[in-house]
């Protein structure tokens, strides 16, 4: 854990330095035009609620790391204080970076340029933006930065993603063999299972399809979890709650409605990803029923 955390920390510093360099160079380049920010969008195109939801499928992937903090809750010191603080600070940092970097790209590339890049299917907006003021060397620089960023995400996902399988196995809600700790004091069997399953998913589609499918499925559970806040507040009003939802009942209610909208919009605009995501969720039902029958007395 210490080594993995150290690697993540080093990569974060490297990525932050690279992004800062790009932002400064981009905003001070001769091709930077703030007029691109306020210029009208493509003729005939309109921003609708449906298009907003569809765009969010990709954008939410940048924020998905917040949930990983909870996966290692059992290994966090003073979790009732540090987990909420880590999530809030982390999300705010990502929002800030996202806005600054995208502002930089929009001052260099017009809306039409971005649309053409997306339509090509083989170009990346960040690469083309840096290429415009640093040439081929800049394209290589940003490509390497993207590679390092992906490594950071993968490293963190490996560290945290295997923990739920391990915890479920310990609670007799998943296969018992995944609840074992190896000689390095980490859930080795769970890590192996995660690696095999990840490899299968990688072979099933491209990156955008996988992230769209992931966001669609996790927001079903995010919405269900938020709905559970109302149910538990009613059924267990006197339960000890170290952390309470800010803005209750309005904030969780708005979020539940947002999740419902995302669910139905994805079914309409991304039927393939929605169908695969729902199939994977439904496939877990017989596993749950089998384990529930095997370990009677568990709800």
Question: Could you characterize what this model shows?
Answer:
Helices cover 73% and strands 0% of the residues. The protein contains 12 helices and no strands. It has helices at 2-27, 35-38, 49-59, 68-71, 79-108, 111-120, 125-161, 163-170, 188-202, 207-235, 250-269, 271-294. Helix 3 packs across helix 11 and helix 11 (250-269) packs across helix 12. The chain has 2 domains: 1-47 and 64-161, no CATH class; 205-299, no CATH class. By secondary structure, it is mostly helical.
In helices, the fraction of residues equals over 70%
Query: Which regions have little confidence, pLDDT < 50, spanning 5+ residues?
Result: none
Shape: globular
Please state the average pLDDT score.
83
Number of helices: 12
Please tell me the total number of domains.
2
Radius of gyration: 22 Å
Please summarize the sheet with the most strands. Answer: none
Distance between the termini: 32 Å
Secondary structure category: mainly alpha
What's the total number of strands?
Answer: 0
SSE string, helices as H and strands as E: HHHHHHHHHHHH
Quick gist of this model?
Helices cover 73% and strands 0% of the residues. The protein has 299 residues and is mainly alpha-helical. The mean pLDDT is 83.
């Amino acid at each position: 854990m210490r080594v993995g955390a150290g690697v993540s920390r080093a990569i974060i510093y490297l990525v932050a330095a690279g992004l800062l360099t790009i932002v400064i160079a981009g905003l001070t380049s001769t091709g930077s035009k703030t007029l691109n920010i306020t210029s009208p969008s493509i003729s005939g195109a309109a921003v609708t609620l449906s298009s907003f939801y569809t765009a969010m499928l990709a954008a939410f992937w940048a924020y998905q790391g917040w949930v990983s903090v909870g996966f290692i809750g059992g290994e966090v010191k003073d979790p009732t204080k540090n987990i909420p603080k880590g999530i809030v600070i982390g999300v705010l940092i990502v929002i800030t970076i996202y806005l600054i970097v995208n502002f930089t790209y929009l001052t260099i590339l017009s809306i039409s340029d971005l649309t053409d890049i997306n339509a090509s299917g083989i170009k990346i907006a960040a690469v083309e933006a840096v290429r415009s003021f640093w040439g081929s060397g800049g394209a290589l620089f940003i490509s390497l930065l993207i590679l390092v960023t992906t490594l950071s995400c993968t490293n963190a996902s490996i560290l945290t993603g295997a923990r739920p399988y391990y915890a479920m196995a310990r609670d007799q809600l998943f296969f018992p063999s995944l609840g074992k700790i190896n000689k390095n004091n980490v859930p080795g069997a769970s890590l192996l299972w995660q690696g095999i399953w990840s490899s299968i998913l990688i072979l099933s589609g491209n990156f955008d399809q996988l992230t769209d499918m992931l966001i669609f499925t996790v927001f079903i559970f995010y919405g269900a979890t938020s709905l559970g806040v109302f149910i538990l507040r009613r059924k267990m009003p006197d339960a000890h709650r170290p952390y309470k939802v800010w803005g209750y009942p309005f904030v969780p209610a708005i979020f539940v409605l947002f999740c419902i909208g995302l669910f139905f919009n994805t079914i309409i605009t991304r039927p393939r990803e929605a169908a695969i995501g729902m199939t994977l969720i439904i496939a877990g039902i017989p596993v749950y029923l089998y384990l529930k029958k095997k370990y009677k007395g568990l709800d």
